[in-house]
Amino acid sequence: MTPAGAGLIINRFPTCLPPPMPELQYIAYTSTASRDIVDADLQYLLADARHFNAKVDATGVLLFNGLAFFQYLEGTPQACAAVMARIRSSSLHHSIYELCCHGIDARRFGDWRMGCTLVDDEARWLALHDPSLWTTRVENPAPCEGLTLLTAFWQASIGTP
Ligand SMILES: Cc1cc2nc3c(=O)[nH]c(=O)nc-3n(C[C@H](O)[C@H](O)[C@H](O)COP(=O)(O)O)c2cc1C
Description:
By secondary structure, the chain is α+β, with helices and mostly antiparallel strands.
């Protein structure tokens, strides 16, 4: 006697279909400031960003070196899309370059509606922008090197991620 369904090959995720939508994802991107960004600009940007991020439950960190931004954002795909739409339409920056957009098992910056720090360590800044560090493989759930580097940097400069 064979159990019902025996001999049936069930391919749950056939290769012709996209992988299922992750519950959480992260996006890392870089951009160039459109003009001189003074402290008041940054404070306004952060207040506005944190207000919206709280509404959609998005978390992450923003790094600024005086000329360019690096941002890491995490949340549901819907939240990330809504935040990215606002980011793309901001007049404060241009040349947005997405380094990575990938599913993630858990938030890395869950306590930060948008943490922010200035970066004056040129070597670390450049390392974070290396696209090869942000390459992930769909079948590999381990965080990419870029995320590990960012977490270590944040821990060293701020404390807890
Ligand atoms: C580098 C950068 C990061 C931003 N991050 C966020 C964010 O995390 N969440 C959000 O809702 N908006 C974000 N924004 C949008 C800002 O809140 C918005 O640009 C700011 O309020 C000024 O808007 P304006 O340039 O269109 O006048 C970001 C904008 C920039 C330039």
